[in-house]
Amino acid sequence: MKTIKLFTMSLLLTSFAAFASCKNNNTEVEVLAENNTEPVKTEVKTADITFKKGKLIEVALLTVKPDGQKAFMEEYFPKVMPVAVPYGAKPIASFAVTKTVMGNKPNQMVVFFEWDNVDQKRAFERNPEYLKLRNIRDNALSFLSQGYFQVENDVTVTISTDKTYDFAGLFINPEKASQLQEYFQAVLPTASKPEFGYTPIVNLNPYKGAHDQNYHPSVIAFAEWKGGTDSQERFEKTKAFKDNVAKRTAGAPYIDVFHIVPIL
Asked: Which CATH code, of 3.40.50.12710, 3.40.50.11190, 3.40.50.20, 3.30.70.100, is assigned to 160-262?
């Protein structure tokens, strides 16, 4: 398991504060700083985000180079958005990866973007103004993996910076998919108990007829662990998990799992 250093997290949270375009509601909570008995106020931010049926949802896993943040935020992102918006582009939300639980992806961020449809996205990628800016993006990033997805129904959820969310990209073996289903049926009653609080939010399925990019899991499960940051770790010590994890492995031989927090 990999954990992003706190310094890197601070940079990400600062640099990408303007990345999401959702309505924020901010509150303050009091916490005790290390070696300090005085309470320190930490701002908790919330936002309502919506995954819309009928839209193309682009998922991007990315890492910005330490020396590429200025170029990405000042030279690429502000200039590319005016080009993208006429094609129906709309940021849904961006998240910082706090822990890689499974998989080998080195991304430090997960970004959800909405487009009107795949034709509009493809037209945007042919736009000469975008092509001029793409090299700036590519030079600023050390890792980028993207995929196109869709949802069956509109889903709106309130996300909060003091919550732990779970991103799971499952690559399913069709011949053993039933074992994965058996795994979930066996473990969800335990995982959903208050002490763990696993709560599904939305499943993102591959966008039909679109394999343009390079990230193609069979499904992405976006959920919340309401029992705290160590909920999954504690859940994986339970008998229900240990007795059934082999079925998960058979049904989904490769899985990306990230713990993520929203950047608001």
From this structure: 3.30.70.100
Please report, as a single letter, which amino acid is at residue 95.
F
Task: Say which residues have a Cβ less than 8 Å from residue 158's Cβ, sequence separation at least 6.
Answer: 46, 47, 48
CATH 3.30.70.100 corresponds to the domain 2-27+43-150: yes
pLDDT in tens, 115-143: 999 999 999 999 999 999 999 999 999 99
DSSP string, 167-186: EEEEE--GGGHHHHHHHHHH
Question: How far apart are alpha carbons 72 and 15 in whole angstroms?
Answer: 9
Q: Looking at residues 91-103, what average pLDDT do you find?
A: 96
pTM recorded for the entire structure: 0.84
Q: Positive or negative CA dihedral for 102, 105, 107, 110?
A: negative
Does the CA dihedral 25-27-32-34 come out positive or negative? positive
Least confident of 23-27, 39-43, 105-109, 239-243: 23-27
DSSP structural state of residue 250 = H
Quick one: pLDDT at residue 36? 53
> How far from 24 is each of 9, 44, 46, 229, CA to CA, in Å?
20, 10, 5, 23
Domain extent listing, the chain: 2-27+43-150, 160-262
Question: Cβ contacts of residue 104 below 8 Å, gap of 6+?
Answer: none
Contact 47, 158 (CB under 8 A): yes
Q: Phi then psi for 38, rounded to 5 degrees?
A: -85, 135
Nearest to 224 by CA among 173, 184, 169, 261: 261
Residue 26 β-bridge partners: 45
